[in-house]
User: Fold this.
Amino acid sequence: KNQVEQSPQSLIILEGKNCTLQCNYTVSPFSNLRWYKQDTGRGPVSLTIMTFSENTKSNGRYTATLDADTKQSSLHITASQLSDSASYICVVTLTGGGNKLTFGTGTQLKVEL
Amino acid sequence: NAGVTQTPKFRVLKTGQSMTLLCAQDMNHEYMYWYRQDPGMGLRLIHYSVGEGTTAKGEVPDGYNVSRLKKQNFLLGLESAAPSQTSVYFCASGVIANVLTFGAGSRLTVL
Assistant:
């Protein structure tokens, strides 16, 4: 069964600190991987997208990495801000597109003063 | 440019009642989707549409129906609501299948 697992489930960090969120997937064949940010009470918003041939992609203070061999991705947040408090969701697309998106359950990040 | 708009944002139903959630997008997207999000689970696809007049079943379609009579609108219907349908529902649209813009969500409670 195609799955996407994220860790940790939740994380609390102090403002200004860095953190790394993990995503392991068994989706195959793999097309691309996205990281979404979901603020409380809002819909997910795309942060990054990477195809199987890309190793890293940045969007401001967010940097995603991908190792297609080990089927692992990470999202690194630099110099965290209070506004980074949200759920971060890893989404993997099967080759062939269509609607074969598999969503992870998300990592709930809280940034505190 | 409103993007993807869902109505209503909140609704409480009694078991057996029916209702319709409306999703409207102003981006001329062909693809539209309805997902549900439950605690501890990833977003799950209910139904989707690849263009006006077309609909298809997703991962968890039972108990739901959809219609796409106009390109900009995608309706999700519950004919006889059940407590198991208590959830947050998200609509999404996209120019291509896996580049999605999500709405803000509709929280439904079935008593």
